[in-house]
Amino acid sequence: MMEKRKFFCAHYNEDFIRRKKELSSDGFKDSKDIEEVSLNELIELWLDRKGEEFTLGYYRVLNPALKRIRNLYGTYKVSKFTPMLLFEFRSSLKSEGLSTSTQNRYVDIIVRIINFAFQQNVILVNPTLGYEKAREKNNEMFFLDEKEVSYFLKLMDKKYPKGHKYRWVYLVYLMSLETGIRARELWGLMVSDIPINGNKLKIYRQWLGNKYSRPKGKEARFVPLSDKLRDELISELITPCKNQFKDQVDSELILFRNKVGDYIDHDNFVKRVFKKDIEEAGFSKLRFHDLRHTAITLMVKKNIPMPIVQKIAGHKDIKTTMRYVHIVGSDIEELGNSISLGAFRDSSES
Questions:
Q1: CA 277 to chain centroid
Q2: Continuous segment of H or E residues that includes residue 221
Q3: Which pick of 86, 163, 219, 335 has the fewest CB atoms within 10 Å?
């Protein structure tokens, strides 16, 4: 936790430290009129109270945005932040060619900081009420078909063969394409999570970059685990890990780990490994999250009933799962009448 704060605070100048000291232990002692407080003061209070909850990934997004916001509006009194000013800020970002999602993210940071100050009774009025985000186009969903999946896995199997020190990279791809597991859930897996026998992997936590939390859907779930994947995880990762860290119990051993036995940094993995691998395979548009899309799409194509696909994917709302039906053009009634499911049926049972 201390390393995270050091990482973040290094991006701010001495003024941040000075102003932080001027705040009382509870922030501002009394509520203030919005004519009295600047955005910089609220930013400092927000970081002081909420910063410990942020992941390193969020910091990477937040730092450049806050730097720009401070330069443009840091000294502005909060009274100036009307919906019109926020709209003008968004328009200026749009004129620079920034995407709608980026525009919304930058403006949302300002709104979030001011909302927090209002909720904490730091300011008496919230001047951002009435502001609406720009509508974002649905992100295009990419996925591989069965032949492309087979080709990609064969290519990666050859690049990272059994016994190779980076064999775990191939197993990351195989697990993602077989189970549809989310990245945060993947990196949060421990040695103790992998069953020695059976074909069910229980997902009950995710790694946020600095701490564990419950999965996105808030509930534990089971995903299918093939004999091939399970056996390779045991032979290539689990057994060597136990031999290397003999003094630690299974619940403390990370399944996918870096050279020093610590957690994998997802952004670093995507930049240094994944992007090179997909370019080599000819799938340059593919994002890591699209491996999950691919896994769920293939489940739908295999006529697995939607409630079971929903459970495996961890979708809270089945409407999210139904998007994949429309993508592959499957008939819903046919899915409902699907027969034998093998390991998938077992994997949905708690």
A1: 21
A2: strand 221-224
A3: 163
What Rg do the C-alpha atoms of the chain give, in angstroms? 24
List pLDDT tens digits, range 63-80: 888 999 999 999 999 888
Three-state SS at 110:
helix
Top mean-pLDDT range of 26-30, 102-106, 143-147, 295-299: 295-299
CA 62 to each of CA 54, 145, 228: distance values in angstroms, whole numbers, following the listed order: 10, 36, 41
Mean pLDDT, to the nearest integer, of 143-164? 93
Write the pLDDT tens digit of every residue in 325-347: 766 654 444 444 443 344 443 44
Buried b (16+ CB within 10 A) or exposed e, 24-37: eeebbeeebebeeb
The strand pairing partners of 254, in sequence order, are: 190
**Look-up of token digits 């009194």:** 77
What's the mean pLDDT in 89-118? Answer: 86
Fold of the CATH domain 2-119: DNA polymerase; domain 1 (1.10.150)
Residues of the chain with CATH 1.10.150: 2-119
Average pLDDT over residues 34-56: 84
CATH of domain 146-347: 1.10.443.10
Structure tokens of 111? 């709104």
**Nearest to residue 330, comparing CAs of 292, 285, 299, 294?**
299
Q: Which helix (H) or strand (E) holds 278?
A: helix 275-281
| The pLDDT value given to residue 217 | 65
The CATH 1.10.443.10 domain(s) of the chain lie at: 146-347
3-class DSSP assignment, residue 142: coil
CA distance to 25, 70, 72, 173, 291, per residue, from 294 (Å): 49, 41, 42, 11, 5
